[in-house]
Design a protein that fits this description.
The complex is a heterodimer of chains A (about 280) and B (about 140). Chain A has helices at about 5-15, 25-40, 70-85, 105-110, 120-125, 135-140, 160-165, 190-195, 195-200, 240-245, 250-270; strands spanning about 45-50, 60-65, 90-95, 115, 130-135, 170-175, 185, 210, 215-220, 230-235. Chain A has about 280 residues and is α/β, with parallel strands linked by helices. Chain A has a single domain, classed as Glycerol-3-phosphate (1)-acyltransferase. The longest helix of chain A has 22 residues, at about 250-270. The radius of gyration of chain A is 18 Å and the shape is globular. Chain B starts with a strand and ends with a helix. The chains are: A alpha/beta (about 280), B alpha+beta (about 140).
Chain lengths: ~280, ~140
């Protein structure tokens, strides 16, 4: 067994069981106050169009992702969802394996975070849950700060196959401000390739940023303290791909349609912003 | 936390009741209310339920509410069935000048000590909504 294979095996053993559902509505309810305080007074969050999410039934929320490994956009959306629809409505967030290894993961799992392993999202949608996915994942979340107003899913289309297979609507969610919570300098994709992180951890990046309390922050493995940038999240109207493109939608066309809708909204939100951090 | 505001308006109680007595109309004049949709069939009455949301800071809070008092044209009260613990009450009392209107919102954010902090910091926002709602009611009547 090579060193790489050994490490991969060891890390896989550390990952929590994706089938284990730790989401706890009572715990989420008790966390609403802290979430509301942070979202309202620290991030001055503004969530628009939450009512566009269908009132019931399974739905796939598809977001652009920002903020490094501490993602205020998903935090703000989670609060908005839970206060609007109630903690009784099942809401899960898919996360990268690496996030599932972070120290605060137990708290996040009780809030509804699950590992994005094969079969997990399908199982949750079949149970009628709302599932949030960030197709751009580690690639998008570590993009440089000056590319804040850019939707970049890196061509990943798994979310489309999921929505088509399970016949659930896609609700695009567009956020801005997260990429101002630190100074993101580079994804460090060359470094990640050199260290074979893509093979070992499915990591295409080894991000480099400047963030408190570390200063120069390489990897962002244990997170950072996000700067208090204003976070704006806009929830768009649901998209039914079968209705839009017929019984067998073309993946490329569907991908272009969703990302174009999201980029247009992100451009609009970016045009509203006057100053970094302040919004 | 209890927020209460009172105004004397020139209209008669029966006139004001036309607005106050139909919660489905609240988004039209209650500041911060983003939706209030009937969840039960029929006219507003004791036992009728609505899905109500109020924008407070970064979140739209609320849930399903149920009318627990419906005493035309004097008193309408509701309690929250889902969402954060909350109650609301309209009181209309005829006076020589018209009607003394009281709007009272009582809420409690879960979460222990942090819930109490959130209660207190939300109070100015909720009070602002209540004051603007009474002003809007005065204009509409």
């Amino acid at each position: 067994m090579s060193v790489g294979e050994f490490l991969k095996e060891r890390l896989a053993a550390l990952l929590p069981d994706p089938a284990e559902d730790l989401r706890d509505p009572d715990y989420i309810r008790d966390s609403l106050a802290l979430g509301w305080l942070i979202a309202t007074f620290y991030f001055r969050a503004d969530v628009r169009g939450i009512e566009n999410i269908p009132a019931e039934g399974p739905v796939l929320l598809v977001g652009n992702h920002s903020g490094g490994n501490v993602t205020p956009d998903s935090f703000v959306l989670g609060l908005a969802f839970n206060t609007y629809f109630g903690v009784e409505r099942p809401f899960y967030q898919l996360a990268h394996d690496l996030v599932m290894l972070m120290p605060q993961v137990q708290w996040l799992r009780r809030m509804g975070m699950v590992g994005a392993s094969p079969g997990t999202a399908e199982r949750l949608l079949d149970r009628g849950a709302a599932v949030l996915v960030y197709p751009g994942g580690d690639w998008e979340v570590h993009r440089p700060t000056w590319k804040s107003a850019s939707v970049d899913f890196a061509g990943r289309k798994g979310f489309l196959r999921l929505a088509l297979d399970r016949k659930v609507p896609i609700v695009p969610v567009v956020g801005i401000g997260g990429q101002e919570t630190a100074l993101f300098l580079s994804r460090g994709e060359g470094l990640a390739r050199f260290l074979r992180l893509d093979k070992l951890l499915r990591l295409k990046v080894l991000p480099i940023s400047v963030a408190p309390p570390w200063g120069l922050n390489i990897g962002d493995f244990v997170g950072h303290i996000p700067l208090p940038a204003k976070i704006t999240v806009s929830v768009l109207k649901p998209v039914d791909l079968h209705r839009k493109f017929g019984p067998h939608p073309d993946l490329e066309k569907s991908y272009n349609h969703i990302t174009r809708l999201m980029q247009r909204e992100l451009d609009r939100l970016a045009a509203e912003r006057r100053l970094p951090l302040l919004g | 936390m209890r927020i209460e505001e009172r105004r004397t308006l020139g209209a008669a109680p029966a006139t004001l009741w036309k607005l106050i007595g139909d919660p489905a109309a609240y988004p039209g004049f209650l500041s911060g209310v983003t939706r209030c949709e009937p969840q039960t069939k029929g006219r507003p009455r004791r036992g009728a339920r609505y899905s109500l949301r109020l924008l407070v800071g970064a979140a739209q809070v609320g849930g399903v509410i149920e009318i627990v008092e419906f005493d035309r044209p004097q008193e309408l009260a509701w309690v929250g069935i889902t969402g954060i613990d909350q109650r609301g009450r309209w009181r209309l009392r005829a006076t020589p000048e018209g009607t003394e209107v009281t709007l009272r919102l009582t809420y409690s954010v879960p979460g222990g000590l942090l819930g109490l902090v959130a209660d207190a910091l939300a109070a100015p926002i909720v009070r602002g909504h209540v004051q603007r709602s009474l002003e809007a009611l005065a204009e509409l009547s």
